[in-house]
Amino acid sequence: MPAGAPSRLTAAKDGISAMRAAAARPASQLRRAQALAGYGFIAPSFALYLVFVLAPVVVTFILSFTYYDPMAGSRWVGFDNFLRFFTEDRSLQIFWNTLRFTLFAVTGNICVGMGLALALDRAMPATLLYFFRLAFFLPVIIAAAFVSIVWGFFYGDDLGVINYYLSRIGVSPVHWLTSSRNAMASIVVMDVWKNAGFFMVIFIAALQGVPKPLTEAAIMDGASYWRRFFKIVLPWISPVVFFAIVYASIGALQVYESIWILTRGGPGDATRSMSIYIVEEAFDNFEIGYAASVAVVMTIVILIITALQMLASRHWVRA
Amino acid sequence: MSILETFRPTQALEPRVAGPIRKNGRGTALKRDEQNVNTRFVAFSAVVSLSLAGGLAKADDTSANLRLQTFGTEAQLGAVKHAVARFNEKYPNVKVEIAIDPISNGWGDYVTHVLAQFTAGNAYDVYGTAIETFRTFEARNLFLPLDDYIAKNPSYADFDPALFKYSSYEGKTYFVPIGWNNIMINCNRALFKDAGVEEPKDWTWNQFREIAKKLTKRDANGNVLQYGYEVPNQNFFVQPWFLTNGTSPLNADWTASNMLDPKVAETLQFLHDLIHVDKVSPIPGKDTMDNQFMAGQVAMISRGRWILANVEKAKIDLDISDVPSKVTGNTVIGFGGYAVSKTSKYPEIAKELIGALTSEQTQKEEADLGGSVPGRKSAAETASYLAFPPSAPLYYASLPHTVPVPSPANFQEVEKIFIRNYIAMMADEISIADGVKRTDQELNESFKRLAAQQGK
């Protein structure tokens, strides 16, 4: 090696340093450019979110502390609207109705959806398979207006289909929708009929993702069908089940359509939900501030229930 | 220059055209010499018109854009369009934009819609609406008084004065009536004949009850095949039962509940017993039983004239009867009316448009559609109007015995409170005694809120 010539190691080190220095500058500019582009891409959707989600939420929250008149403007009333909600017998009954519907509708939709998925997740002729899937999914896509006509016809007191067949076997007619004892159950049945097909589709997809070697090994070990389901399949698809429960719960807490089309919330307030109550107070009674306060309470309830479900999920949902 | 244009000076003296009159304030008081000139021109124009043997309409060159917001079905829209076309014969340069709301979401939704238009500074010039909303709008001072315009038009004498009385608030008339409906008992005559029951006339509650029993049919298992009557599920339909007992759920000036009047409970008990004791009616649900009536499964329903079109389609042999009386023979009336927005830039032309919308020709056309009873008596005397049902004259004859449907400024809330509790009582979800107390409490709370909102 000639005297004064840099060693290979030194040269290499210098080279790397130079390359790093050279690379550092463009990299920083690139990052900035990429960041700007990223912000540019999300800006339209963020603007839409801001205008159509965040701003209405903030406005609703502010309105909940006011008396709002469409012509005269708003007047600050503090917690009066919330006080009214928590002290009126009527609003508390409506709150309880909503929770009751949520409990039964979510349970019904998840259980029936899972039952249908299990029934169809097996070997059968393709034509038959697609026929059943379509048949069970069809109610999901049928318009509520048709559903109301059909179920109204089923549930009619004197001229209804169900009571007709009950009378044929000597059973007295049942007031399906005109008695508070039966009305909520009747609505839940229709809701499950209409929505269980949606959960069936989700569960079928999840069931098809369960690794075959696991279930086959269990079969080899002599595990029964239900033992395999509870010990292998259910734990494996638990994240999907958890999603379905949260999704169904949020939907049920906001229930409007199913109840409105069958009973309009009656008889009395026996089936009125918080969503119906909000709409009636805001747009029939012009109590927009009070309706906003009920909406805020409902949002908080949904958040609490979802948080509780998330906490509980730590114990049963596969990580 | 055409003959029509020659007459323009006459029109300039008439307090009709908004622009110039508003500027010089001549709309309210014409000078005597102007009136004389006006009279001479009117007489001259009448002679010329007659001599033309066709009565050519005077055209007016006023230019304006009017916006009309009204309610109804496609059929009613047709009649409105024809009225506007007739208006445009006289005012060819006035463009009228029509918006029609089918009221598919109730009057509350319509009120919200109209209030939003005013709030946004986008109010229409002319509004068609119903009595259920009158007080809400009047209390907010949205419309112009029409007393002067009505006084100037002798043809409005054709309307029953009661209709204008019901259209007034604090001494001023804000609406020109369109058509009205009173609740009568609609009877399926074929089912009456089958049951060997004579058609009712001047009947009482008890006679009604007995007839309803005879008209109710059951099979061997006791299942109902045909109901005698439908206990109504709507506020408007049920009101006659209170009125015939000399009471009402609200007090006379619609400012407080009257639910604790023992006659209210008595009326509710009577209706309750029709369902649960006599079993002549099902429990009222969310839907009316119009379809069942059209199918011959219900013999009597409480409705207005609007059902005639469907009755004729279903080929029901129908006739109407007064509501059975107990203390009075009164029934309820509801009706529509047109008003001019206070924010209209063309109030005088807007009033002329109302004139066309409530003319005899328009009312006859609307009556032929089978909807409401026309406000004009002349339109309720045509052969086509009187052809069906056999007792068609009874609609107009009963007008002196009508009471407007209670329509306070918080009507939407009051109606919901009443009907929710009423249905609960009819469904035996709550006793009549507890139900009237609960309704009374809720109604009075609603009126308290209304008073607070109005700063009273």
Would you kindly provide a written description of the structure presented here, covering whatever features stand out?
- The complex is a heterodimer of chains A (about 325) and B (about 450).
- With about 325 residues, chain A is mostly helical.
- Chain A is built from 12 helices and 2 strands; from the N terminus they run H-E-E-H-H-H-H-H-H-H-H-H-H-H.
- Chain A folds into 2 domains: about 10-65; about 80-315, MetI-like (MetI-like fold, Orthogonal Bundle).
- In chain A, helix 1 crosses helix 12, helix 9 packs antiparallel against helix 12 and helix 11 (about 275-285) runs antiparallel to helix 12.
- Chain B has 3 domains: about 5-50, no CATH class; about 65-180 and about 335-400, D-Maltodextrin-Binding Protein, domain 2 (3-Layer(aba) Sandwich); about 185-335 and about 405-455, 3-Layer(aba) Sandwich (D-Maltodextrin-Binding Protein, domain 2), CATH 3.40.190.10.
- Chain B has 21 helices and 14 strands.
- In chain B, helix 20 packs antiparallel against helix 21.
- The termini of chain B are far apart.
- Residues about 1-55 of chain B have low confidence and may be disordered.
- The chains are: A mainly alpha (about 325), B alpha/beta (about 450).
- The interface of A and B includes residues 71, 267 and 286 of A.
- Strand tally of chain B, please? 14
Helix content of chain A: over 70%
- Regions of chain B with pLDDT < 50 over 5+ consecutive residues? 1-57
Shape of chain A: flat
User: Radius of gyration of chain A over alpha carbons?
Assistant: 29 Å
Query: How much strand content do the residues of chain A show?
Result: under 5%
Oligomeric organization of the protein chains:
heterodimer
* CATH architectural group of the largest domain in chain B: 3-Layer(aba) Sandwich
